[in-house]
Amino acid sequence: MEILLEELYKTDINPDKFHFRKLFLEEDSSYQINGISQSGKTKLIKNYLLGLKKNSYIYIDCNDLRIDIDKLNKELPLFCNKNRINTLVFDNYTMDIKIFNIPQLIICSQTHQEIGFLTNVILYPLDYEEFLAYEYKYDSTALKNFFQLGGFPYMHKISSDERVGYIQKTLKYALSDMELDILIHCTKMMAQKISPYAIYERLKQSRKISKDKLYKSFESLSAKNYIHQLQKVSHQKAIRKIYLCDISLKSALTTDKHFGRIFENMIYLELLKSDSECYYDEGIDFYLPKNSEVILATPFADERTLFKKIEAIEAFIFRYQVKKITSITMNKEGSVSHPFSKIEMVPFDIWALGR
To answer: Do 194 and 326 fall into the same domain?
Structure first.
């Protein structure tokens, strides 16, 4: 094991060109970084390590087949002490590997581990502003490219004919068969209300399945942030709406091209990454209580259709004293006169960058 540690210690880190993310690591903090497969966790860590002295850190990928965990647990503390290593990185960390005292520890995994002294952060796929850093120029094609590629950083390097296969292979590697089946069904139901029980009823028609196992797999997918659940306002037990971790999964896992739901999922992810507290209601895509704001996903709405939509939700506006209604569109911009709330139509790219 010592030979492998020496090799890892001396290996130079050479990540591809790095585009800065909104998440930054600092030298005086230890971190637990969670995120779905291919969200950019490894590249974020390696770019951070490049700013440190070469002999001050060691990077260990816990998926390395050469690692004997028992020997690693025994020899690594001595190795770090001997070489005065200040920063220890465990990529693809598992709980079988013991934690010991070291100035800076960084662990990286899909699922959250209960390790109290670490600063916990989640790295989501690219939001729209981060995506623009990968574009050669910012013009009218940027939003179109975002719809096609989604938020996985590696998609910019994959040819168009290989993207679907690459995403599918990534998901097969990262998820169990049950989790993948559930994710495929959630993809078909993107931006709609669906319960784990409804998924169970659907899947049991085509395969032998345990309800308990399905529920556990559903919760695992949610904990890993492959799916997100949006609660109905003032109804904690109501069926929740399902959103995907990235819009690219829609075309990779189904043939359904429902643009409106993809657009709504895009808006949800921007709200999620900005830590906005939000809910849904009938006719209400997103309600932000702290802002007293309703957000509607209306990619192709005009003033007339928007006003009719507002009339249908006036009871909600009165009940919750909504002060602002934002209609997110593809390219329409303007305002609509209404006696109770400020109503604005804002193109997605302007809204996303403005947040």
So the answer is: no
Task: Find the range with the poorest average confidence among 68-77, 245-254, 293-302, 329-338.
Answer: 329-338
Q: Are 123 and 95 in contact (CB under 8 A)?
A: no
In this structure, are 144 and 106 located in the same domain? no
Rounded to whole angstroms, the Cα distance separating 48 from 60 reads 15
Contacts of 278 (CB under 8 A, 6+ apart): 230, 268, 271, 286, 287, 288, 295
Domain boundary among the residues 246, 267, 288 is at 267
Across 124-174, the runs of DSSP E, i.e. the strands, are: none
- What is the count of structural domains for the chain? 3
Instruction: Looking at the structure, tell me whether residues 142 and 182 fall in a common domain.
Output: yes
Given pLDDT bands bounded at 50, 70 and 90, which one contains residue 2?
confident
* Residue 6 in this model has a pLDDT that exceeds 80: yes
CB 297 within 8 A of CB 282: no
Query: What is the share, in percent, of the chain residues with pLDDT greater than 70?
Result: 99
Q: What is the pTM of this model?
A: 0.92
Q: Assign 4 to helix, strand or coil.
A: helix
Q: Which of 58, 87, 122 is the last residue of a domain?
A: 122
Where in the sequence is the domain holding 149, given as residue range(s)? 126-267
Alpha helices (H) along 11-93: 41-50, 69-82
